[in-house]
Amino acid sequence: MYDLVIRNGTVVDGSGMPSYKADIAVSGNRIAKIGHVAEKGCEEVDASGKVVSPGFIDPHTHFDAQLLWDGYAKPALSHGVTTIVPGNCSLSLAPLKAEHRMKLVGMFNQIEEMPYKAFKEGVVWDWETFSEYITRIRKGLAINVAPLVGHSVIRLWVMGDAAMERTATAGEIAGMQDVLRECLDAGAVGLSTSYVDMDETLLPVPSRYADAGEVDALASVLAEYGRILQIVPEFYDPDLTIARLDQLAEISLKYSIPTTFSPLFINADNVEAVGRVMARVDEQFARGARVWPQVQTRPIDISFSFAVPSLIFIRMPGWYKIMRFGTQDEIIAAFSDPENRKKLIAEATPNMALWSFLTLRFAQTEANQKYVGKTLAEIGKMRGCTALEAMIDLSVEEKLDAHFMAANMGHNNDERVSAMLKHPRVHIGASDGGAHILSFSTYGDTGYLFSHFVRNLKAMSIEEAVKKVTSDTAGIWGIPDRGLIQKGYVADLVVFDAATIDRGEETYVQDVPGDGKRYVRASHGVDTVVVGGGVAWSAAAGYKDDTRGAILPGEAAETRPLVAA
């Protein structure tokens, strides 16, 4: 008898080859048989009329903190995501000395928009080393985790406060190499760094003080393990992005390691720039380098209120400064004072086209309910003011708890985005799962891939789409025995209805420690999600207690490849 049998499904195995009908039998955590299975299973799933695919892999997330109170990474698991990669953008929660905890929390708050209160109420700080953090998150882990270690925290560990002030000495770089080895031995999938991010004081994060020699030295350690380097380049400038891409290519060629950069998205005003970046990607791959650009599937949507410093205001210093550093009373006073208000309006007026098409998505007071769902241009007309003035007035009236939505700001040209997603060198990712919880929902990107680009636009086949988010990703990241439905592979599987799979509408829920709220999306059309051979979630029963999540690629001290001297 098998532990699990999935019967009568249409198998899309992750290889890109045509689908076929078969049963799948699982023993322990491995696929034991594919074909006709006469034997019974201790648990059986009827997949008639549905697709059975490998579990989806999300390579760009920030679930580092959420995993401490939620080993399922809800609701990602319910969307068919069986493996997540946290620790991107130079930020991970380990290695981290006690004296730097609040510094890192500030960086997560600034960069990933994670609330301070969630860390205060939801995190018990009982680790310092990367190994101790891995031990901590293993408890109740229902989803696989392939954790990156952040360059910024490695610098903090070795250099202390000097990490935020200067380049490193030769001795400090050697110390960072030793720390990175310890992290890779403990299970880190690679290293992340950033060339753009700022801390909570709006100064560069520690990784931005590193010189090229330091990055090269850390890459040499990655080479000892064959692990990946992830970076955030200066994505707002195509010339700088191409320069970073070239730097990655040289590292990849020198050390024979994979590299990836994100984000890369296409807007009406950057079509030529993205074309230049992709042309250079092709050139570098032709040389033998591996420089994978990560591209998201969904359009760019941003929600915000004046209560939280939104990145939508980052290029408006007057606005961003008061929202970043002001209390509720100070922010209200700044926008109520006539003289200061004039200055703020003058700073924001050049972006009037943006403010005009924003919609009010939430208000608390009864008086303002009539405006919910309308654009600020419409509200301004009703109130006899500009869209910008309407946004300010509503925010003050609602004591900063008015929420606005900027929908379809970019990455929404179906023809161009489809072409990017289909590109053989494009790595589908950049979901930011677990981050930006009050700005947009980072869930359902795979559902959107299948509903919009496969089913509606027919821009790619279901076999192509599954391959992109399973075996391609496993191969890029060096995750063994996953990403394919193949005998002997780990049984991370998704059963879904190709006719209905989708992401749900964005909803506002209160499920973050400290009574915090966030935007999420429910999954549609996903029937069953299997992690490590056990059903972790099903549409019929929800989340299961059978927690079989693994750390990938896992401890590596005894499996490190030999490197020639």
Description:
This protein is an alpha/beta fold and 565 residues long. The strands form five sheets. Strands 1, 2, 3, 4, 5, 18, 21, 22 and 23 form a nine-stranded mixed beta sheet that branches. A six-stranded parallel beta sheet has the order 9-10-11-12-13-17, sandwiched between helices. 34% of the residues lie in helices and 21% in strands. Residues 556-565 have low confidence and may be disordered.
- What structural class do the secondary elements suggest? alpha/beta
Q: Overall 3D geometry?
A: globular
Distance between the termini: 51 Å
Which spans have pLDDT < 50 for at least 5 consecutive residues?
A: 556-565
Radius of gyration: 24 Å
- The overall strand count is 23
- The amount of helix comes to 25-40%
**Tally of contiguous helical segments:** 18
What is the averaged pLDDT score? 95
Q: How big a fraction of the residues is strand?
A: 15-25%
Largest beta sheet, briefly?
A: 9 strands, mixed
Primary descriptors:
single chain; 565 residues; alpha/beta; nine-stranded mixed β-sheet; 34% helix; disordered C terminus
Could you give a quick summary of the protein structure above?
The chain is 34% helix and 21% strand. It is of the alpha/beta class and 565 residues long.
